[in-house]
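Hello Y.,

Per our agreement to keep a running log of every chain we model this quarter, I'm adding this entry. I've kept the format consistent with earlier entries: sequence first, then predicted structure.
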Amino acid sequence: MRRPATALIAATALVFCAAAAPPDAAPGSARAPAAASKGPTVADLITQAAIVASRTDPAKWDWPAAASPEVRKQIAEGGYNQEELRNIFITLARSSGPSWPNSGPRPAEAGSLNAPNAVFVGRGFRGLEAFYGSNGYGGVEGRVNKVDTLIAHGDTVFISWIIDGRHTGKLFGFPGTGKQLNVRESSITRYKDGLVTYANPIGDDLALYTQAGGKISFPDKAQ
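Predicted structure for the entry above:
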């Protein structure tokens, strides 16, 4: 079987578009000094590495840190085509955050893989900042996304992962405790021509709330 029978969710094509070089000056005119190159962004490097990975047996990949042993096995046995492999690698590299690339310097600029009119439906934990004055990313130190499920097909990719890290910043108004957090988050993303057109991240806010120090009250239960 090419994918798990329950997997009707899908993966995408993220195509690298290099910035065009500035045109040469007209003949006989003075040439303006060339602007200093800023170099590639993180998004550029991810896309380039993914193109190479798409042409390589996944068993030989330099796996991004987010890929758990379970998801590596799923991908190796998934029978994915080149386009799917490329976008699977992109998804995992993006999920690895500052842990990618595995070696060498990380560019200072992140870059973007979002289409101009991309639609973002779910808030995920990033939305906590707007609603609670706290952020599920900034309040977690040493955060690692441990992706344990990835299903790719067509223009969509589904991933689910465990966020692992220490609570050192404000979450839901609770100050950092130094405790370890372990929370589930998932997302469905669609792409077109290498750019994100739709994303719906869903985080387990209740688990994050209680692990940060929140209490849940049930009126019909003795406290």
